Amino acid sequence: MVFWEKRMEAVRDCISRSEPPLMSVDEMRRVIETMGKEAYNTLGFYEKKAAAVRDVLIEKGVFDAGELAARIERVRERRETAIKDLPDSFDHRHDHDDIKDDDPTPSEYSVISEAVYDCLVDKGLLSAETVGRMIERMEKAGPALGARIVARAWTIPGFKKTLLQDSKAALLEIGVKPLEAQFVVLENTPEIHNVIVCTLCSCYPRSILGAPPAWYVSKAYRSRVVHEPRAVLAEFGTEIGNNIEVRVHDSTADLRYMVLPMRPSGTEGWNGEELGELVNRDSLIGVTTATRPEGEGKDG
Prior knowledge:
The protein is mostly helical. It has helices spanning 3-17, 25-33, 37-42, 45-59, 65-84, 108-122, 128-140, 143-155, 157-165, 167-173, 206-209, 219-227, 229-235, 272-276, 281-285; strands at residues 182-187, 192-197, 245-250, 255-260. It has a two-stranded parallel sheet with strand order 1-4. The chain has a two-stranded parallel sheet with strand order 2-3.
């Protein structure tokens, strides 16, 4: 995610959690799902979100189309002025060959999202500080946090029990506050393999696992994992025996899931950091398992 995408996601999150909410996830989803075929197939994930947030807020009278259009022109002028004011050359006395432009070819929707953000801030409906904190939280979330939670559940039976019974309460015990209305951890066992999806759009435990992978929000995954989950898992290299029940859990705007994979055998005595290295994003979604790397480990 480049910066404008992070801010777009943070704005969307903030305005859906405000009191009263300026926009619901379902309202955004409705606009996205009713886009014309060409727009739906050509716009990127966050471009669709920017368009949907814009349309919903105009529809609800938060600002009108003319007001937003004027703001968009101001954003364009501001960007052009900033580029003109850049010096022709720099002398930092060191190389920056390893640093890439955050957004080398900015999308038109980055301008739209910035204009929406400016309008909301100017109207006092959003603050830069709130959005900044949300972006910071998003950047801290990710598979590493999920792996730490899993490793703790593997090594502390009491924590695991609470995690499966009341996931949010368990996470609060270790200083992690899920922002989702409902958050449920599903345990994989020798008899049951769980996998998560959002069949309508991209609902995902972002406050815990960060942004979802591109394939998770694709139409192919959203439709196929429901109808042929074993075939989809096999494409990820995960073969599930016919004696194991595969359960597909559909996330919603209010309910998000995370999978607790089974602990690999031969890891007795491993500490939390070592165990966490066996867990990746895909195993937290359920399309793969936590697997001990071949030839690695204490006795590898």
